[in-house]
């Protein structure tokens, strides 16, 4: 077992970080000399997390060192390195927070050498930055209570039911006496529940989903008794807690509605009164906005395009401060990453469609924000493409939203790639930095995203409109979006390709089958091309919840499922197709791709085909990503016409192939 070591290197100059900042301008200059390479977009972010100590003296920074993530602790006064905490070979930091000003809690995992996913050897460290070795915490670590630097919270299974569900309780342990049982804070009233504590550490909410997607949430009163707050079998709606006020008197809930987007409500613990605070005619709350000390929810971001910040008490000091930050960083989503105990100094995180993420240190006394670093310092945000929100009507009059990213260096109608998101439910395309989109735009392709019916973020009813509409009205929405882009003069009608992964791969091939004159080519990654096999292949059908899901969103009419599958329409697919799949895909096994390839071969249209030996549902190995996107750009150039002389380093062939990544 790997044993981490805290390297005490107090006084070491911050050369590593200063060099990175210096390289920003060098990287931008290199990009100006020619089109960016594939690796510019696929390379992992260098900086991942930042946390300031409660006393404001130290910064803990999670950053990449070759194939590992390392935590470096800096003294703010002179930016010298105090300590470094290594995670070992292929270590990945999943959480980073301070417990007092001398201890860090670090949750990390180790990526598999073959699968390149953080699924191996998860550990949680309690790090005394002045000691040589960290303390390993038990896997049942739950969290900490802000302001309490002596205790941690752990979760234990008190009762294992006949339904194979754990009834959890929370306990508070002293970090100097971790072998003790500690104090029990509360026990969940239902199995396999998620729990939420207030700012004193008292358990307040428990919620869970059953095998039939029944959603239940319980609230715990001041007397320690649980009572039901919502049961979806009764209300047919879900309610989820999003946070608790700093004084522990009020909770904030996200509640579904029957005929519109979700709303934010307040819940008074003393009276049980619920009051609607925020709602939007189109968009669900996309993310919660917190106070300047990070303790209390004060508002939410709403879409459907560029997120807009809204607050339930706009005149509060925290809302005014956050609003000022939004104005100071226009065109960005702004959040508080961490803060000192007194809230005087704050780490601010921003991101946008052109910036993968940046961190600033805000001094509230001077109102000055100082840039710490960009997540990907080699990418110039000013040279990235803009995601423009779009809105149009589907053929049946339903309002649809999405995003258009215009090809760089192309005037007039451009070759276009329609990217269909996966899911298709509980997932949506949103306004954020997207590597695929930027890669394609940089190589001369416009990119179109549409949130077809069934997508998340538009309320329960909008999602339900997509139930049992695979290949039908959901596909029509994608077609209508494509025709909209043509009518707007954005897309060259003779140079459009459709691409997607998972459900998106299915939709790409269905688009090719249903609209052979609309698309010039199609690309499917990890797609389920035969809907009838979802009840036999893969892992969804292996659980009661999965079977309930399939029955709900697909139905059991086998003839209809086959008719609405690309594999039964292979003879209608007359355009070039590229299929890619991971050979270890447990969700959508590689048999789907093999069967689709055979059907296309039988129809006289053999696809370009590539499999990746150690990949699952998607691509994780950097070498495989490089290979796939090189193939994609070559495939697009061959079928839509070249738009750039530079498709990155690497080789891409045609016909059948096996990816080069893995071990």
TrEMBL record:
<feature type="region of interest" description="Disordered">
    <location>
        <begin position="644"/>
        <end position="663"/>
    </location>
</feature>
<dbReference type="InterPro" id="IPR001375">
    <property type="entry name" value="Peptidase_S9_cat"/>
</dbReference>
<dbReference type="Pfam" id="PF00326">
    <property type="entry name" value="Peptidase_S9"/>
</dbReference>
<dbReference type="InterPro" id="IPR029058">
    <property type="entry name" value="AB_hydrolase_fold"/>
</dbReference>
<keyword id="KW-0378">Hydrolase</keyword>
<dbReference type="GO" id="GO:0004252">
    <property type="term" value="F:serine-type endopeptidase activity"/>
</dbReference>
<feature type="compositionally biased region" description="Gly residues">
    <location>
        <begin position="650"/>
        <end position="663"/>
    </location>
</feature>
<feature type="domain" description="Peptidase S9 prolyl oligopeptidase catalytic">
    <location>
        <begin position="431"/>
        <end position="641"/>
    </location>
</feature>
<dbReference type="GO" id="GO:0006508">
    <property type="term" value="P:proteolysis"/>
</dbReference>
<feature type="signal peptide">
    <location>
        <begin position="1"/>
        <end position="32"/>
    </location>
</feature>
<protein>
    <submittedName>
        <fullName>S9 family peptidase</fullName>
    </submittedName>
</protein>
<keyword id="KW-0732">Signal</keyword>
